[in-house]
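Table 4 source record.
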Amino acid sequence: MSFFVNTLFDDPFTYLAWVGVVMFSICLHEFSHAHVAYKMGDDTAYLTGHHSLNPMVQMGPASLIMLFLFGIAWGAVPVSLARLRDARARATVAFAGPASNLLLSLVFGFILALGTAIGAGIYILRFAQIGCFANAVLFFFNLLPVPLLDGWSVFSLFIPALRSLHPARAQQISWIFIALVFLTPLAGLIWGGGAWLSGLIVGAWARFFALIF
Protein backbone atom coordinates (compact mmCIF):
# COMPACT_ATOMS: atom_id res chain seq x y z
CA MET A 1 0.00 0.00 0.00
CA SER A 2 1.46 3.34 -1.07
CA PHE A 3 0.99 6.35 1.18
CA PHE A 4 1.01 9.96 0.01
CA VAL A 5 3.79 10.68 2.54
CA ASN A 6 6.14 8.54 0.39
CA THR A 7 6.02 11.39 -2.14
CA LEU A 8 8.10 13.41 0.32
CA PHE A 9 11.06 11.17 -0.46
CA ASP A 10 10.34 10.62 -4.17
CA ASP A 11 9.27 14.16 -5.11
CA PRO A 12 9.63 16.55 -2.13
CA PHE A 13 8.57 19.62 -4.11
CA THR A 14 5.22 18.10 -5.11
CA TYR A 15 4.63 16.85 -1.56
CA LEU A 16 5.35 20.22 0.08
CA ALA A 17 3.48 22.17 -2.59
CA TRP A 18 0.38 19.96 -2.24
CA VAL A 19 0.41 20.09 1.57
CA GLY A 20 0.94 23.86 1.60
CA VAL A 21 -1.71 24.59 -1.01
CA VAL A 22 -4.35 22.30 0.49
CA MET A 23 -3.70 23.57 4.01
CA PHE A 24 -4.04 27.23 3.00
CA SER A 25 -7.01 26.55 0.73
CA ILE A 26 -8.99 24.72 3.41
CA CYS A 27 -8.22 27.43 5.97
CA LEU A 28 -9.37 30.15 3.55
CA HIS A 29 -12.46 28.07 2.76
CA GLU A 30 -13.41 27.86 6.44
CA PHE A 31 -12.48 31.50 7.09
CA SER A 32 -14.83 32.50 4.27
CA HIS A 33 -17.68 30.61 5.91
CA ALA A 34 -16.94 32.33 9.22
CA HIS A 35 -16.60 35.80 7.70
CA VAL A 36 -19.78 35.66 5.65
CA ALA A 37 -21.73 34.16 8.58
CA TYR A 38 -20.49 37.06 10.74
CA LYS A 39 -21.59 39.58 8.12
CA MET A 40 -25.01 37.95 7.99
CA GLY A 41 -25.60 38.08 11.73
CA ASP A 42 -24.09 34.86 13.11
CA ASP A 43 -20.98 35.53 15.20
CA THR A 44 -20.64 31.92 16.46
CA ALA A 45 -17.50 31.22 14.45
CA TYR A 46 -16.06 34.62 15.33
CA LEU A 47 -16.57 34.09 19.06
CA THR A 48 -15.04 30.61 18.97
CA GLY A 49 -11.85 31.77 17.25
CA HIS A 50 -12.65 30.54 13.73
CA HIS A 51 -12.31 33.98 12.15
CA SER A 52 -8.74 32.90 11.47
CA LEU A 53 -6.40 31.21 8.98
CA ASN A 54 -4.77 29.10 11.70
CA PRO A 55 -4.78 25.45 10.49
CA MET A 56 -4.84 24.13 14.07
CA VAL A 57 -8.13 25.99 14.53
CA GLN A 58 -9.72 25.49 11.13
CA MET A 59 -8.53 21.92 10.51
CA GLY A 60 -7.33 20.42 13.78
CA PRO A 61 -4.66 17.77 14.49
CA ALA A 62 -6.52 14.79 13.00
CA SER A 63 -7.11 16.56 9.69
CA LEU A 64 -3.50 17.77 9.52
CA ILE A 65 -2.17 14.25 10.18
CA MET A 66 -4.40 12.91 7.38
CA LEU A 67 -3.06 15.62 5.09
CA PHE A 68 0.58 14.78 5.84
CA LEU A 69 0.03 11.02 5.48
CA PHE A 70 -2.64 10.67 2.80
CA GLY A 71 -2.88 14.06 1.10
CA ILE A 72 -6.54 14.60 2.03
CA ALA A 73 -7.98 16.78 4.79
CA TRP A 74 -11.03 18.68 5.95
CA GLY A 75 -12.05 21.67 8.03
CA ALA A 76 -15.11 22.90 9.87
CA VAL A 77 -16.47 26.05 11.46
CA PRO A 78 -19.41 26.26 13.87
CA VAL A 79 -22.41 28.03 12.35
CA SER A 80 -25.70 28.64 14.16
CA LEU A 81 -28.37 28.13 11.50
CA ALA A 82 -30.99 29.62 13.82
CA ARG A 83 -29.19 32.95 13.69
CA LEU A 84 -29.28 33.06 9.88
CA ARG A 85 -32.54 34.61 8.81
CA ASP A 86 -33.56 32.26 5.97
CA ALA A 87 -32.51 29.59 3.48
CA ARG A 88 -30.92 32.23 1.24
CA ALA A 89 -28.62 33.34 4.07
CA ARG A 90 -27.68 29.73 4.86
CA ALA A 91 -26.96 29.04 1.19
CA THR A 92 -24.84 32.20 0.96
CA VAL A 93 -22.75 31.17 3.96
CA ALA A 94 -22.39 27.65 2.55
CA PHE A 95 -21.36 28.87 -0.90
CA ALA A 96 -18.72 31.24 0.53
CA GLY A 97 -16.31 28.36 1.15
CA PRO A 98 -16.38 26.80 -2.33
CA ALA A 99 -16.37 30.30 -3.83
CA SER A 100 -13.03 30.97 -2.14
CA ASN A 101 -11.64 27.78 -3.73
CA LEU A 102 -12.93 28.81 -7.14
CA LEU A 103 -11.26 32.19 -6.71
CA LEU A 104 -7.97 30.55 -5.74
CA SER A 105 -8.22 28.20 -8.70
CA LEU A 106 -8.71 31.21 -10.98
CA VAL A 107 -5.70 32.97 -9.43
CA PHE A 108 -3.44 29.94 -9.73
CA GLY A 109 -4.69 29.35 -13.27
CA PHE A 110 -3.83 32.96 -14.10
CA ILE A 111 -0.31 32.47 -12.75
CA LEU A 112 0.11 29.22 -14.66
CA ALA A 113 -1.09 30.65 -17.97
CA LEU A 114 0.92 33.86 -17.56
CA GLY A 115 4.00 31.93 -16.47
CA THR A 116 3.72 29.65 -19.48
CA ALA A 117 3.36 32.64 -21.81
CA ILE A 118 6.47 34.42 -20.48
CA GLY A 119 8.57 31.30 -19.88
CA ALA A 120 8.58 31.21 -16.08
CA GLY A 121 10.57 28.59 -14.17
CA ILE A 122 9.36 25.02 -13.91
CA TYR A 123 8.80 25.19 -10.15
CA ILE A 124 6.57 28.26 -10.45
CA LEU A 125 4.54 26.54 -13.14
CA ARG A 126 4.31 23.31 -11.20
CA PHE A 127 3.22 25.08 -8.01
CA ALA A 128 0.57 27.05 -9.91
CA GLN A 129 -0.66 23.86 -11.58
CA ILE A 130 -1.02 22.11 -8.23
CA GLY A 131 -2.80 25.15 -6.75
CA CYS A 132 -5.24 25.42 -9.64
CA PHE A 133 -6.04 21.69 -9.62
CA ALA A 134 -6.33 21.29 -5.83
CA ASN A 135 -8.75 24.20 -5.53
CA ALA A 136 -10.81 23.01 -8.49
CA VAL A 137 -11.17 19.64 -6.73
CA LEU A 138 -12.17 21.34 -3.47
CA PHE A 139 -14.72 23.49 -5.30
CA PHE A 140 -16.19 20.54 -7.18
CA PHE A 141 -16.24 18.23 -4.14
CA ASN A 142 -17.74 20.70 -1.68
CA LEU A 143 -20.60 21.62 -4.02
CA LEU A 144 -21.82 18.03 -4.27
CA PRO A 145 -25.43 17.88 -2.94
CA VAL A 146 -24.53 15.61 -0.02
CA PRO A 147 -25.43 16.27 3.65
CA LEU A 148 -22.57 17.83 5.63
CA LEU A 149 -21.11 19.27 2.41
CA ASP A 150 -21.74 22.87 1.36
CA GLY A 151 -23.61 21.80 -1.76
CA TRP A 152 -26.47 20.45 0.36
CA SER A 153 -27.24 23.90 1.78
CA VAL A 154 -26.74 25.58 -1.60
CA PHE A 155 -29.07 23.20 -3.44
CA SER A 156 -31.63 23.32 -0.61
CA LEU A 157 -32.25 26.94 -1.61
CA PHE A 158 -33.74 25.62 -4.86
CA ILE A 159 -35.05 22.27 -3.54
CA PRO A 160 -36.92 23.04 -0.28
CA ALA A 161 -37.51 19.34 0.44
CA LEU A 162 -33.82 18.95 1.27
CA ARG A 163 -34.26 21.17 4.34
CA SER A 164 -36.69 18.74 5.96
CA LEU A 165 -34.31 15.76 5.96
CA HIS A 166 -33.99 14.27 9.44
CA PRO A 167 -30.45 14.70 10.92
CA ALA A 168 -30.08 10.94 11.49
CA ARG A 169 -31.00 10.26 7.87
CA ALA A 170 -28.61 12.98 6.72
CA GLN A 171 -25.80 11.35 8.69
CA GLN A 172 -26.59 7.95 7.13
CA ILE A 173 -26.39 9.44 3.64
CA SER A 174 -23.09 11.10 4.50
CA TRP A 175 -21.52 7.84 5.69
CA ILE A 176 -22.76 6.02 2.59
CA PHE A 177 -21.21 8.74 0.44
CA ILE A 178 -17.87 8.48 2.28
CA ALA A 179 -17.90 4.71 1.79
CA LEU A 180 -18.63 5.14 -1.92
CA VAL A 181 -15.72 7.57 -2.26
CA PHE A 182 -13.27 5.04 -0.84
CA LEU A 183 -14.74 1.82 -2.24
CA THR A 184 -15.90 2.77 -5.74
CA PRO A 185 -14.63 4.79 -8.73
CA LEU A 186 -16.50 7.84 -7.36
CA ALA A 187 -13.21 9.28 -6.10
CA GLY A 188 -11.88 9.16 -9.65
CA LEU A 189 -14.91 11.11 -10.84
CA ILE A 190 -14.30 13.79 -8.23
CA TRP A 191 -10.62 14.10 -9.20
CA GLY A 192 -11.68 14.04 -12.85
CA GLY A 193 -14.14 16.86 -12.23
CA GLY A 194 -11.37 18.90 -10.66
CA ALA A 195 -9.06 18.16 -13.59
CA TRP A 196 -11.77 19.19 -16.05
CA LEU A 197 -12.48 22.46 -14.22
CA SER A 198 -8.82 23.38 -13.77
CA GLY A 199 -8.19 22.62 -17.44
CA LEU A 200 -11.08 24.87 -18.38
CA ILE A 201 -9.71 27.69 -16.23
CA VAL A 202 -6.14 27.42 -17.52
CA GLY A 203 -7.37 27.15 -21.10
CA ALA A 204 -9.46 30.30 -20.74
CA TRP A 205 -6.52 32.25 -19.27
CA ALA A 206 -4.20 30.87 -22.00
CA ARG A 207 -6.54 32.16 -24.72
CA PHE A 208 -6.64 35.53 -22.97
CA PHE A 209 -2.85 35.82 -22.88
CA ALA A 210 -2.61 34.64 -26.48
CA LEU A 211 -4.39 37.85 -27.43
CA ILE A 212 -1.86 39.94 -25.52
CA PHE A 213 1.52 38.35 -26.29
